[in-house]
Design goal:
Layout (H helix, E strand, L loop, with lengths): L4 H5 L17 E6 L4 E5 L6 H9 L4 E2 L15 E4 L6 H14 L10 E5 L5 E4 L5 H6 L7 E11 L3 E2 L2 E3 L4 E3 L6 E5 L13 E3 L2 E3 L2 E10 L2 H9 L2
The structure holds 2-oxoglutaric acid and fe (ii) ion.
């Protein structure tokens, strides 16, 4: 039988997580100080990637772009949102993210799994949100999306790097590793240098989790109240 992702995952669909122990054994290396970008080696622990993939598998819908552009084909992947602390493993990843970013869990968006087939991509964009969007969106009450952790669940055979073109960075997706960056300057204004893209996957499939942490700061609060 061909080693498709479905074949790999299906025996695990009923997988119990009874003997799973939540551990945080990663190491972090700073790759840019301004903007802050770090590479997290071993962000995901054994079994976590497969487990998240099997939870997401039945939930995919075409990915949306929240505020940047309505251009068709801008983000051609599929996405799946998991429930808060849906399983022990989901909760462990949420806790790990909250610890790293220094927020409480309420300020962390639900895990968003993205899946790219060959030819699919997410063109250049930023992860921070328009102030008008923040005002009406559930997550807006927790402030701006100040930090992103993008964790890789499955690496494509070719293509699919995460690139920050203004910084000359093109990061290969490596299963279980993650990239962590700050979307805003220290004073709370948006840092356009964090513009990034998921380059087209050329062969194989790329799967990742978006972990978005929200925080209030004076710049966002000032805009929020000034326009209200
Ligand atoms: O797939 C990638 O490498 C980037 C994904 C991304 O930036 C996003 O989903 O916001
Ligand atoms: Fe992004």
């Amino acid at each position: 039988m061909a080693p498709t992702i479905e074949n790999m995952l299906s025996p695990m669909m009923g997988d119990t997580t009874d003997d799973y122990v939540c551990r945080h054994n990663y190491s972090m290396k700073i790759i840019s100080h301004s903007p802050f970008i770090a590479y997290i080696d071993g962000f995901l622990q054994d079994r976590e990637a497969e487990h998240i993939m099997s939870l997401a598998e039945t939930r995919f819908t075409p990915s949306e772009t929240l505020n940047q552009t309505k251009t068709p084909k801008y983000r051609t992947s599929n996405s799946a949102v998991l429930n808060r602390s849906q399983t022990d493993i989901v909760r462990c990843i949420e806790e790990r993210t909250a610890q790293i970013t220094g927020i409480d869990m309420a300020s962390l968006e639900y895990l968003q799994v993205v899946r790219y087939l060959p030819g699919q991509e997410y063109k250049k964009h930023t992860d921070y949100l328009d102030i008008d969007y923040l005002r009406t969106n559930y997550w807006g009450q927790f402030g701006q999306r100040f930090a992103t952790i993008l964790a890789y669940l499955h690496e494509p055979v070719r293509g699919g790097n995460t690139s920050f073109s203004a910084l000359g960075l093109s990061i290969p997706t490596k299963k279980n590793d993650a990239v962590y960056w700050m979307n805003m300057h220290a004073n709370g204004t948006e840092d356009v240098r964090t513009t990034h893209a998921g380059e087209p996957v050329e062969q194989g499939e790329k799967w990742a989790i978006n972990l978005w942490a929200h925080r209030w700061n004076n710049a966002v609060r000032a805009m929020y109240t000034w326009q209200a």
